[in-house]
Amino acid sequence: MRTDTIRSLSRRLTVLIYFAVVLLPVALFGYDGPWVGGGNISIRGKAPFPSKFTPGTFKDFDEWFADRVGLRYPLIYAGTELHIGLLHRPLDRHILFGRDNWMFWTDDQETVPATMADSRGKLRFTPPELTRIDAQLRTSRDQFAACGIPGVIIIAPNKQSLYGEFLINADAGSPPTRLDTLMNALSGPAKAMIIDPRAMMRAAKLSHAPLHLYNKTESHWNALGAFYGYVAIISSLTRMTPIARHELTSLDHYRVYSRRYPGGDMAVRVLFSPWRFADDDVLVEPKLPIPGLEVIQVAHEHTLYRNPQGKGRLVLFGDSFAHAVMPFLAQHFNEVHRFTGEVFDGSIIAAYRPAAVVLLMVERYANRLLRPPIKLAQMCESAAQ
Predict the structure, then answer these.
(1) To 10 degrees, the CA torsion angle through 82, 85, 86, 87?
(2) Boundaries of every domain in the chain
(3) Rounded to an integer, what distance in angstroms lies between the CA atom of residue 192 and that of residue 88?
(4) For residues 373-384, b (16+ Cβ closer than 10 Å) or e, as one string?
(5) pLDDT tens digits, residue range 255-314?
(6) What are the C-alpha distances in Å from 169 to residues 52, 174, 338?
(7) Residues 92-129: pLDDT tens digits?
(8) 200 close to 125: Cβ distance less than 8 angstroms
């Protein structure tokens, strides 16, 4: 066979192989293939096919198609093997790898790549922002007092606020964070609205070692960390109103233990790497469970815990850190209504006339304090009991 013929066939064969490789996932449309890693990965549900034509239909179709490309699990696994297994770098730039398998989510809102500006003392509210936060907190406090309803804001610590030694040089000391400077700048009435559990949780961190209050590969606190957040909430509310069964804030009523698990949300849901990073989950379970406790998903952003043994209603606005706190709070109240939200909503408070109101946010989203409450003036309006 002549040389030019061989070259011609080789060029065509290369093109054919290229398109075969590129189009293989499309040819296997709808077939995910076997998962060959250390465990099943957990990702969001597949996007549905667009039901109607809108300006966002092409984007919706793209998500639907991408979720059904064949062999996506093996392709995801290959990507994690390359980036995490070989190059030792996270697939998501919100995450920073610390020492000893510790992972940290960016503490500067959604800034990527993660530079941990707050942990390095480089993140601050401006003087006008501090003035604005102080004024809004004082206004909220006055409105709650006028309605006779206790209201507080708890700021759940960033993981690095408790376990910063696995992120930065512990010998150099930890610089003041944005929350430190905020608490120092607030007036007395404004500061009274804020629950800052960091000091209590740092003490608990030492007393519970080697158990942790945050899992290495999780962006949220674990059940033990949530327990101390709950204790801080009940302790604060007790100073303003009677709370049933306050004795349950003692850890003597619970069983605390740890167990190996595939990993937290950063390892499994973001990095698709179950069992790749050694980690333990810490659990806190009541020694005497609540009889008759109901959990009702009222709506996508509204969860109800109903306890026939409790007294009064609690309304909690919060982010994803609220999930682990709810079972503890439900021990004290007849109803605990959790609404996904970033600020107080006076119309919701008026609708339920609760015995107390809590807003929970994680430290990295403390900038939400800049947002004004919603319809706070409606809070005292009469509502269904």
Answers:
(1) 90
(2) 3-87, 127-378
(3) 44
(4) bbebebbbeeee
(5) 999 999 999 999 988 888 888 899 999 999 999 988 999 999 999 899 999 999 999 999
(6) 54, 8, 38
(7) 889 999 999 999 999 987 778 888 999 999 999 999 99
(8) no
